[in-house]
Amino acid sequence: MVFSVLDLLCFFLFMILPYSTIAQTSRNISLGSSLTARNDDNSSWASPSGEFAFGFQQIVKDGFLLAIWFNKITERTIVWSANGNNLVPQGSQVELTSDGQFMLNDATGKRIWHAESAGTGVAYAAMLDTGNFVLASQSSSRLWQSFDQPTDTILPTQTLNQNSNLYAHYTATNYSRGRFLFALQSDGNVVLYTTNFPQDSANSAYWSAETKNIGFQVIFNQSGPIYVVSRNGSVLKPILQTSVSTQNYYQRVTLGYDGVLRHYFYPKSASSIAEPRAWSTAVSIPENICFSVAGEMGGGACGFNSLCSRGEDGPNCDCPRGYTSIDPNDVRKGCKQNFVPQSCDQVSPEHLFDFEVMQNTNFPFGDYEHFTVVTEDWCRQNCLDDCFCAVAIVNSGGHCFKKRLPFSNGMIDPRVDAKALIKFGKDNSTSRSGGGAITKKKDNSTLILVGSVLLSSSGVLYILLPLITYLVVSRIYSRKAKVIQPRPVMSGMNLKDFTYEELKKATNEFKDEIGRGASATVFKGVLASDTGRCVAVKRLDAKVRENDLEFKAEVSAIGRTNHRNLVQLLGFCNEGEHRILVYEFMSNGSLAGFLFGESMPNWYQRRQIALGIARGLLYLHEECSSQIVHCDIKPQNILLDDYFTARISDFGLAKLLRLDQTRSMTAIRGTRGYVAPEWFRSLPITVKVDVYSYGILLLEIIFCRKHFVEVADNEDEMILADWAYDCYMQKKLHWLFENDEEEINDINEIEKYVMIAIWCIQEDPSLRPTMKKVTLMLEGTVEVSAPPPLS
Fold first, then answer.
1. Protein kinase domain location, by residue (predicted)?
2. H-helix or E-strand containing 164?
């Protein structure tokens, strides 16, 4: 690069400026002056020309930023700020005290920010026409200046020294520190970095000026170019090379919240109607940040599970199929799945998952398997069969790279010689429009057709037209009344009141039995009126006669529940002696069959099931409109859906608690072994009976064995709760799963779960935790303390 004599002359002139006194005419701000944050234009100090101002700008409602901005343009673009991480309310004040301290206090007087080197010898402050705010001595020497404390922007004549950084804002409207930084390092290299967000330390460089060991300062020349210079003042390398005059244009170099460093210019006056008065980009680095940001750590340019593509004004961040933005107001937070992940025990995954194929797309780094000399079809099938695989990358060289969640550095670029196969869950939902709506459309079409024929006929038909029209319309509305008038639903919920004949037909006259209890039998059914939807139809035995009002009250309360970990009640039948409940059909049966079958489910899946049940009980106890005690929590009453999500079912014994009561007296209910001690002592019944049952169930989930097993040679092992407690006290929990290497390798987590279970099965209900606390302990939010002894 060859530099003109004029460029070098300008450069050396501005090398001297930082060490000179304030030569320009300035409006000095005297000691004791202050500004107050308020909704007007009077809370600022302007530079002599009025081109810059220092003061408060309102960013959000009752949120003010102490800042410097371009004061003669409509946008009032901010170039420096003091409290981006901590906005202050109206009434806050910045003050240059009588002893030379310069500080920002909020409306209560609490100090938010201060100029660290200010104080001794400060005689006045000044907002300069360069955009620099200074604190000066009586001899006009600069004791503190905003140019030495940059935020995201540098201005003409400004210098960055070693260990100086520019930090991008978090978003376009959030001035707190964001995810990217521009730095002149102590070793002299100038780099753009991603940060270890939310910390502001450097993470991974995505651009470099390659001036290591020789760079000393970065100078924004008034004639446009931005240079790296050595210690002896020689120009090493331009960072952004332009020739824009400061006489005709306002200029700034800003590190955008998207990680791109841009040189902007803005005409001071419109030279023609065609020239817009707005910020334009002269040059930027890197050329394509989507292609540049690809570190081994972090989410890339757009966050985890996202895709970055080059746009006209910067990178575009999008989510692939099957994913949605975590925060629509901040697309760089990345994307999350909007489908249930593939289960590692799922059979025939090809029926539930597919791939979105994206050309010229890659997610560099984060591979957990790599295959060579394979076909795309082979790679696709291998990923489909692998429950850990979220994305497969194939290229023209026959390479196959598999990636698990979360995947990072997503980029779409013509230079990428790769194809991404992104796994997503198929949408198995179908339209559930009522038959009446379809029939209505068909009948209206018939009416139009008949009318058209009649109107096109000969004049003789005019005599018959009123009569025929009457007959056709009457028939249509008669049919509509038969087709679209459903059975009434219960007030305040979407529960259907089925007829007995409907359910008899749906279950093929109650022939396909899938479960049986002490007082009810469950049948599989198919609802013809709901596009062939499978349902579980629970018919209560006719000999079990309870009050019809109580039955309807329970249906009403349970019908208003709606939670991911509850089996949804769809409707009921209360016709004559027939009392029937209609539930969602759970394809993977009960937890009992899952836990106590031939093969042991994996530990991770069991933990997820335990957490799901806890969340469902928390909803019943504290979050739904009517507080419900289930009273019969056991593996047979926990069902598993298509994705093995735990769903609490069988509310036949549920006790409804009024909002003004927390305890209830009732006869013994539930299943022995899971029943809390207070049932047998005629003590008040509370939600803690479910907590006890959950504790027994949790032990069964942990060890995959029933709560009571008759063991001929060792009576101590017959009752699971007693044996687990003894093993816990003796620090010998491994005795309970000698053949399960997965659990042995996670013994600390196992111990935590056993401790939670012991807390739950305390004899004194007051010692048992609430389901909310149980959930927090399972999630790891609350520490699990040592439980008291079991009496």
1. 508-782
2. strand 164-169
Q: Residue 37 contacts by C-beta under 8 Å, 6 or more apart in sequence?
A: 43, 56, 58, 64, 88, 89, 90, 91, 92, 93
Beta strand segments in 613-674, E: 627-629, 638-640, 646-648, 655-657
632 counts as catalytic: yes
Burial class (CB in 10 A: 0-12, 13-18, 19+), 456: exposed
Cβ–Cβ < 8 Å for 135, 122: yes
Q: How far apart are CA 201 and CA 758, in angstroms?
A: 44
- Assign residue 620 a region (left: φ > 0; alpha: ψ between -120 and 50; beta: otherwise): alpha
Beta strand 627-629 with 655-657 is antiparallel
Cα–Cα distance for residue pair 448/527, rounded to 1 Å: 32
Q: How far apart are CA 203 and CA 201, in angstroms?
A: 6
Which stretch of DSSP H or E encloses residue 145? strand 142-145
Query: What is the rounded CA–CA span in Å between residue 464 and residue 161?
Result: 97
Report how far residue 335's alpha carbon sits from residue 342's, in angstroms, rounded to the nearest whole number: 17
C-alpha span between 545 and 552 (Å, rounded): 13
The structure tokens listed for 714 are 């060792």
Burial 745-781 (b: 16+ CB within 10 A, else e): ebeeebebbbbbbbbbbbeebeebbebbbbbbbbeee
- Spans of the chain below 70 pLDDT: 1-26, 41-42, 117-119, 224, 270-276, 346-350, 427-494, 518, 530-531, 542-554, 556-557, 652-672, 682, 710-717, 737-745, 791
Instruction: Supply the DSSP string of 420-446, one letter for each residue.
Output: EEEEEE---------HHHHHHHHHHHH
Select which of 106, 152, 354, 632 is catalytic. Answer: 632
In whole angstroms, give the CA distance from residue 584 to residue 567: 6
Task: Report the top-level CATH class of 591-779.
Answer: mainly alpha
Tokens 């695989």, residue located: 389
- Of the candidates 228, 225, 255, the residue with the CA atom closest to the CA atom of residue 240: 225
Pairing status of strand 411-412 against strand 400-403: unpaired
**CA-CA distance, 316 to 305, in Å (whole number)?**
14
pLDDT in tens, 673-683: 788 888 777 67
| pLDDT tens per residue, range 116-145 | 866 678 999 999 999 999 999 998 899 999
**For the domain with range 496-584, which CATH number is right: 3.30.200.20, 3.30.450.20, 3.90.79.10, 3.40.980.10?**
3.30.200.20
Q: Which of 96, 168, 158, 93 is nearest to 131 (CA)?
A: 158
Contact 125, 28 (CB under 8 A): yes
For residue 513, which phi and psi values (nearest 5 degrees)? -75, 130
Sheet holding 217-220, edge to edge: 159-161, 217-220, 226-229, 235-240
Domain coordinates of the chain in residue numbers? 5-176+219-285, 307-425, 435-484, 496-584, 591-779
Name the token pair of 713: 């040679």
538 annotated to bind ligand:
yes
Q: Kindly state the tokens that stand for 492.
A: 């305040």
**CA distances in angstroms from 368 to 344, 363, 403, 588, listed in the order given:** 17, 12, 6, 30
Return the structure tokens found at 458: 């000969």
As a whole number of angstroms, the distance between CA 302 and CA 467 comes to 69
Distance CA 608, CA 615 (A): 11
| Rounded Cα gap, residues 659 and 677, in angstroms | 25
206, amino acid identity: Y
Q: What is the pTM of this model?
A: 0.53
- On the 0-12 / 13-18 / 19+ scale of CB atoms within 10 A, 632 is buried
How is domain 307-425 classified at the architecture level of CATH?
A: 3-Layer(bba) Sandwich (3.50)
Fold classification of 5-176+219-285 is Agglutinin, subunit A (2.90.10)
